[in-house]
Amino acid sequence: MKKNRQAELIKSLTKQELVYHLYFTQIIILTIAGLLSFIFFNSYASYFKLFSWDTGWIIIGIVNGLIIVALDLVLMKLLPKQYYDDGGINEKLFSNMPIWKIAFVAILIAVAEETLFRGIIQTKMGLVIASIVFAVIHIRYWAHWFLILNVVILSFWIGILYEWSGQQLLPVIAMHFTIDFLLGLYISRTASQNNHKEGI
């Protein structure tokens, strides 16, 4: 029933409304992260230290993102379609979206979510709490147990990388961006192919 309601809600929204909702949500997340940084960090220096550049760890983040994408693509082929059914949100959002816009959306989400969940919550409250909050926030994936499991595992994976890197944000931002960008491209390409077939 909940899944049907979500699907009906998605159908009632235009693609532009979905994009605006996404931007609005990420701006809220960034605002919350900014406000909490004043509360939890004693100085700007200690906060911006989280964004220190380490090429080696950034590459590791990208490689981890590629592994996640590869696993997802394999599972999409092997598992029933409903296991990855989020109510049509991703398909509607990314279909026919230009590459530059997919990249922009992916970097916005990666920076906003990792700054809040890893940079603030995990740094100050720990891996478990950050991972749980991350999973709870992604309410649109609650429609299927596999999607929930997927998000929880991904959250812990990103959180563990954050700890291993010495609590550096750029590697996990790179990982998150890689996942969202490549899967966004895949969804966009698949949707375009399906539309082309329907038009034949």
Automatic annotation (TrEMBL):
Keyword Transmembrane: yes
GO MF, one example: metallopeptidase activity
CAAX prenyl protease 2/Lysostaphin resistance protein A-like domain residues: 97-182
Pfam families: Rce1-like
Domain of life according to the entry: Bacteria
Key word Transmembrane helix present: yes
An annotated GO BP: CAAX-box protein maturation
Keyword annotations: Hydrolase, Membrane, Metalloprotease, Protease, Transmembrane, Transmembrane helix
Transmembrane feature ranges: 20-45, 57-79, 99-121, 142-162, 168-187
Descriptive protein name: CPBP family intramembrane metalloprotease
Organism of origin: Lederbergia citrea
